[in-house]
Amino acid sequence: MSSLPRIARFLVNLLIPQRAVIFLACLIGAFSAFLNGIGVSLIVPVILMLWGQGDGSLALPGFLAHIVQLFSGLIPEHSAAGLVVVVLMAILLCNIARFTHAALSQRVNFRVSCELRHKVIDALLTAEMAYHDCQHAGEQFNRISPEVSYTSHAAGSAVLGLEKAMTAAVMLALLFYISWELTLLSLVALALIAGVHLILNSTVQEMGKRFYVTSRNSYRSLVEALNGIRLIKSFNYEKKELAKLTQAFEENERTLFHYRLYLGAAGPLNDLLAVFALIAMAYFGRIFVIGENPALSAWLLTYLIILVRLLPELSDLHRIRTSLLHGWAGVSDLLDFLELHEQQGRQRSGTIPFCGLRKGIAFENVSFSFHDRLDAAVEGVQFFLPRGGTVALVGESGSGKSTIGDLLAGFYQPDRGRILVDGTDLRDIDRQSWLAGLGIVSQDVFLFHETIYSNIAYARPGATTAEIEAALHGAHAMDLIKSLPEGLETVVGDRGVRLSGGERQRIAIARALLHNPEILILDEVMSALDPLAEQKVQEALRSLCTQRTVLLIAHRLSSLRDADHVLVFQHGRIVESGSPPDLLKRGRYYRDLHAAFVRQSDS
Description:
The protein has 21 helices and ten strands. The strands form two sheets. A six-stranded mixed beta sheet has the order 6-7-8-3-9-10, sandwiched between helices. A four-stranded antiparallel beta sheet has the order 2-1-4-5, with helices on one face. The longest helix is centred in the middle third of the chain and has 53 residues, at 238-290. The protein is elongated, with a radius of gyration of 36 Å. The protein has two domains: 3-344, ABC transporter type 1, transmembrane domain (ABC transporter transmembrane region fold), CATH 1.20.1560.10; 360-602, Rossmann fold, CATH 3.40.50.300. The chain is 66% helix and 10% strand. The chain is α/β, with parallel strands linked by helices. The relative contact order is 0.08. The model has no long low-confidence stretch (mean pLDDT 79).
């Protein structure tokens, strides 16, 4: 399907839930167009009555001529005054109707924007992790803000255009009634104007695409710079990044400047062509109308006034079309994203509720590859994690340890093999109930730009202060809270920047304790901590791991003292397994890791 019908169908589907409002807007638009036609048509008869030169009713359709003739039977002063009242009431009611129609159009815009933004955010939050691995944060921001705005504006503009189109249709019908010959000539002139606009529109559409791309790239660069502000400052690259961002935004503004230039040129050109059309119609009207009957000059005057009123409506329709073309690229990209999400679906979830671990978790010949990598992240992994036990994964960086944790959390699905929870495939277990029984603490702790209280309570909204303090005691973090002037109400900054690494880890452990999971995944929790912070976190972890099933992913072998079983990974495979003392005796890879760890500790 070509892009135009595809996008048109997308916009129609967005408008279907608003069909009641749109139907009401159409009725009001038709009423407005009808009143507009009455008001414009009666202007010449009013002028002629005021000048005492007849009523001009010959140039009007039957029902309008009948209205004029009703008033023309009165004395001149009363007939003119009565007709003026009719014209003013028609124009007043027409403008009230137009305002109501515009308000309904904005309501459609508002509702479509809210529902579409909800749909996009829902799609982003429920997309598979594989999708997020390939996306830039700036691109995601673009989905939620500019692209949704372009699309909702397009939907609202379509409704607004209905009233313009109906008014133009009424005006054209009046013109055909007055003189079909002149109207055919008018249509030829309007077709020439439309041809010029089409040439301009192709350039405007191309510029709209270019502006969308430059806008997306500039904001993506800005988001990236803000996320990497520490790196930028550490290299003293503020001026370099400023120059880069300035260039990106200047390119964006330059494209917008040229786009507005073209729009600015369209207005005067439109006025020039409109004046040309009016002069041409006046000339041909002299030939076709006045040449045959000089008394019909009022007829021609009525025709020209209606034509003058028609041209702005056509200009508004052109402006709506131009604004749609400007945002076409954003609408198309948003549609591509939503279609991709529809094809891939939400993060998969089974239907069997997880009601607690009875025996344990088994990895059976599990293999997994990231979509952009040729080599497997893990290959043929097979082990058993018993209920209440602790299995540790060790190995070099990139050996597949964290991938095992991500597979157990359900962030990714195995390419081959399966993960069994008490004999049930993890893919068949309800995701929500599974995650309710699972806790994850990783090296890269994420804290919201909120208070410590809010960050811990995120695990269980509605938790009491006493419960949060109990979790902090268990995480050995109450000394931290007491040292802060604002205590639990201390705002931690973006990603917890106001806290040290060890402090962030203990807050994360307190959050996990409040969540009270049955199964724990600890992913390199202490790899970036100093010895003192490591000791405090180690104490917190002992509280956390008590009577829980633990998958421990370790970089520092000092954290293995409580492990029941150790799996040594290399290149995505398990190369050795056993208890820590056993592996020290017979394990070649483990002994090498242990020796390297001892040398690092000694140094």
